[in-house]
Amino acid sequence: MxxxxxxxxxxxxxxxxxxGASFSLAQTPPPKPTPKPHNKVRKIxxxxxxxxxxxxxxxxxxxxxxxxxxxxxxxxxxxxxNEIRAFVSGGSQVGFTVLQKxxxxxxxxxxxxxxPSTNKETDAEECLAGDEIELDxxxxxxxxxxxxxxxxxxxxxxxxxxxxxxxxxxxxxxGRGIEARTYEGDVxxxxxxxxxxxxSTTGNIIAFDVNASxxxxxxxxxxxxxxxxxxxxxxxxxxxxxxxxxxxxxxxFLTGGQYSFGTSNxxxxxxxxxxxxxxxxxxxxxxxxVSEMPLQNIEKNTPSKIQxxxxxxxxxDASLKLTTVSGAIRIRKQ
Length: 334
Known about the structure:
This protein is mainly beta. The chain is built from one helix and 26 strands.
């Protein structure tokens, strides 16, 4: 009886310890999360003059230019001078800071929404803002832009990188490559060269009369909700995609070229010369495949709702991959 009594006491004691430990853990407050850094609101330095803000600076011919725009229409023009001229109407001040020099000429310049030579504000907003924002820059310049909301026109410069939260982007006569991304708006490129990466979340992508500037330059275009229209695109590797929208290609398939066109919901229309030469692999679901020109070695396979087709035209000098889940694939005579 004593052994049973002692064992009972030990069991009760162990249960009390367990309950006490659980209660202690429950009462211990969880660790406080590390506070996230707060983005400090910067002060917009308004132009108090009745005249538009304007500044200029002498630079190297191949200068790298960085700027951000919080709001306003932006226009950048290439000119023959080795000089940057910045103009802002109805908004912020404008100024420059030199990030790097080569001998005496700046090779890397940042355009600011205030003039650091006269304004000593420690929390001044660096982004430009105004009704009209215009820059004249050397034709060989590299331009890097980040924008919150801006309609952009960029003409006759060496190279461009754009990231725009909202607004259309129009690029013309860009010599050595483009990276353009806008989340709400269209991207249009014409008469330009180099590797290109064009992206829009909600908007169309249009490119015509563009070419490679170096061997191996790739052309990429993607939109989540919009159409892609290409005419006379001369890069030998082209990758195009749309989640919801049609793809239209009008031009030639070059020897050794690799072309990939894909859309989840839309048609793919190719308008090409009658002497085209390619091997095609097509996949389409709720739609049809139609060619106005005769194809050779046609093979069809329908293992499920998706239809697969492979064929050849001419001697098969280029490679085509076409994919649409819901839409037609059409090959038309140019």
